[in-house]
Amino acid sequence: MIIGIPRETRPGETRVAATPETVKKLSASGKHQIVVEVGAGVHASIPDADFQAAGARIGSAAETLAADIVLTVRGPTAAELPKLKRGALLIGLLNPFDQAAIQSLAATGVSGFALERLPRISRAQSMDVLSSQANIAGYKAVMIAGNVYGRFMPMLMTAAGTVKAARVLILGVGVAGLQAIATAKRLGAVIEASDVRPSVKDQVESLGAKWVDVPYANDEERKIAEGVGGYARPMPPEWMARQAGIIAERCKTVDVLITTALIPGRPAPKLIRADTVAAMKPGAVIVDLAAEQGGNVEGTEIDQIVVKNGVKIVGFANLAARVAADASALYARNVLNFLALSLNPKTGEFNVPKDDEIITATLVCEGGQLVMKA
Ligand code: NAD
């Protein structure tokens, strides 16, 4: 079979869905041919020659898109759709929440596997692209905050006097938020964090951060807050108002605010109002990791740094793509592990286990039809 790895064409997308390491493993059996588009790895610091040395052939965009199995980071653009082969397998972040995009993908007749839909079970952890990329985004958010912030992160005692440690608040403590806490901690900041899910408190405290509690008024609020399948659900307006009040008070004291709150398939919850930003200290920095989903902060603009009363709001999209080499390395391993469900790397035998729950959860279209489960 031919396995194609096209160059990503969406603006700002620097990642690539395979690396020489994964190409080597995919080609080990000698039964499959790997075709990588010319320049596919260039933004991730992988020259074509390294892909060739690992056993790939360098080809055109058309060749890679017409392969039997196409590995991508992002779903194909409208211009790329007609180049896919009917019956081929397409594996990547296909944005299953965008109904129109998924419909047009289905119309090509490919079998599309949307990795966003991987179930959060232990067997799927090695394939979990959302986690591997969110981890990187959490790290990069702190790096960007440190860069934009006009002061030190750690406390410093110098002959010229003492510098206070930065106070960092992290809202939304999933994979990205936990990594943001760990990274800010390494830089010597004083950290507070909060989340809707009560189970996160212990994780926050075990990383040396202080938990900011937003109490539940009744059992119903507590039940909703527990979420489903590891993900949060939208909270009732009363709880959101209580949270906004508590967080607004904390925001008056912090130097760096990192927001990561997401609810799958919905716009990001608004956690920070414009008046909360207005009451923050001049020089404070906000990094809104939810910018692409509409932002957690009023005033966030996608891919911009907006300055409001001296507070800088960073709304960069796709932070993982700003760590392109490592993001690609982890993404490519996730994809390889997903492929390993169907592909025996030693014998080269390829057989999709149709009844495997990882396959049924991720398969969004097949034979020209949408087959996505609710
Ligand atoms: P996510 O990116 O969907 O959301 C980020 C965080 O925002 C979550 O912690 C969520 O609770 C929080 N949030 C949502 N609405 C909020 C609000 N109104 N106020 C405050 N916070 C809000 O989440 P994620 O990072 O993908 O992970 C969520 C959980 O799933 C984590 O606990 C993670 O450890 C777990 N997980 C489990 C597995 C597995 O078991 N295989 C794999 C990956 C992640």
Furnish the topology, listing elements before pairings:
Blueprint: E1 2-5, H1 20-27, E2 33-37, H2 48-53, E3 57-59, H3 61-65, E4 69-74, E5 89-93, H4 99-107, E6 111-114, H5 129-148, E7 156-158, E8 161-163, E9 167-171, H6 175-186, E10 190-194, H7 200-206, E11 210-211, H8 219-225, H9 237-251, E12 256-259, H10 274-278, E13 285-288, E14 305-308, E15 311-314, H11 324-339, H12 357-362, E16 363-366, E17 369-370
Parallel strand pairs: 1-2, 1-4, 2-3, 4-5, 5-6, 9-10, 9-12, 10-11, 12-13, 13-15
Antiparallel strand pairs: 6-16, 7-8, 14-15, 16-17
Could you walk me through the main structural features you see in this protein, from its secondary elements to its overall organization?
- Helix content is 31%, strand content 18%.
- With 374 residues, the chain is α/β, with parallel strands linked by helices.
- Strand 1, helix 1 and strand 2 form a beta-alpha-beta unit.
- It is globular.
- The two termini are 32 Å apart.
- The mean pLDDT is 96.
- Residues 120-122, 125, 128, 130-131, 134, 171-177, 195-197, 230-232, 235, 260-264, 269, 271 line the site of nicotinamide-adenine-dinucleotide.
